[in-house]
Amino acid sequence: MYLDYYILENLLINYIIINCTTYITKIYTKKSRQIFGAVIGTIYSVMYIYKELEAFFSLPAKFIFFIIIVLISFNITDKKEFFKILFNFYLVNIFISGSTYFIIYFTGISHMTISFFIICSYISCKLLKKIVNDFRLLKHVDDITKKIRIQILDKNIECIALLDSGNLLQDPISKNDVVIIKASLLEKFLPKDYNFEKMDISDIQDVTDNLEPRLSSRVRIIPYKHVGDNNAGMILGIKADYLDVDNKKISNIILGISNFDDKEYSAILNPRILY
Fold it and tell me: Sorted alphabetically, which keywords does the UniProt record give (predicted)?
């Protein structure tokens, strides 16, 4: 029974660490790869129980397994990206493990309580994400344009985006960043002749009902408010597969649909996405 708990505990915590590293590095990685990497890490943890396998836990062997988990868990395109992920993965491990044991030591609750141990790891992951986001916000970003490529339902959309430091929209639930795009870019997916500027809950529901099931499950409601305007509005959001900018695939992106009219760009990019 204890072994079952041990395996489940390691599987979930390994996944939390891998997922947190994906968020921090902002490199697109499929969930299946993250889960597979967590499974490999769990297998390695189980090996620790058996004395006859102690040779696998020498410092060189640990480093090799560390690299194997990184190669399996992340979509790596070049050496620079590999070392970036490896370094961040190592730091995330240190931070989550250290802060988790600190919480356990501070509260006095035994780490053998699996649910509490996993909750501590999850809290540590959230705390690390918050710290990283705060550092990113300290950077000043000038307004420039970027060529971006959006993948949604295995279809690619290319356009020019304005990098606007004033666009800090986020999904209020998941806290994922929002990229505002012209509705015309998604004309193959959305109902025609619809005003996406002034929407309420019923309007969003009408649009959702007319989307194909694979797309309707990705719908998000994004509240927004213009400066100097006391009336809050809503934007229809759709989660993309990923955003490709500067040859980097970024996951956890919400597309905010708008009817804005500008010939020089077709999207407004949140500056936090690039850092």
Answer: Aspartyl protease, Cell membrane, Hydrolase, Membrane, Protease, Sporulation, Transmembrane, Transmembrane helix
Share of the chain above pLDDT 90, in %: 20
Provide the terminal-to-terminal Cα distance of the chain, rounded to the nearest Å.
Answer: 44
With cut-offs at 50, 70 and 90, classify the pLDDT of residue 141.
very low
Q: Are 272 and 137 in contact (CB under 8 A)?
A: yes
SS3 assignment, position 197: coil
Q: Does the predicted model carry a pTM greater than 0.70?
A: no
Q: Is the pLDDT of residue 111 over 60?
A: no
Residue 62's CB: how many other CB atoms inside 10 A?
12
User: Which structure tokens are listed for 233?
Assistant: 């509005």
Determine if residue 61 is left, alpha or beta; phi over 0 gives left, psi from -120 to 50 gives alpha, anything else beta.
Answer: alpha
Q: Mean pLDDT, to the nearest integer, of 186-211?
A: 82
What Å distances lie between residue 252 and 22, 115, 150, 207, CA to CA?
A: 10, 27, 12, 22
- The pairing of beta strand 155-163 with beta strand 267-269: parallel
Residue-by-residue DSSP string for 213-261: HHHHTTEEEEEE--TT----EEEEEEE-SEEEETTEEE-SEEEEEE---
Q: What is the DSSP string of 53-105?
A: GGGGGSHHHHHHHHHHHHHHHS---SHHHHHHHHHHHHHHHHHHHHHHHHHHH
List phi, psi (to 5°) of 104: -65, -45
The predicted model gives 148-176 an average pLDDT of 87
Alpha helices (runs of H) in 113-181, residue ranges in sequence order: 114-137
In the chain, the amino acid numbered 273 is: I
More confident: 113 or 214: 214
Identify whether the C-beta of residue 144 lies closer than 8 Å to the C-beta of residue 268: no
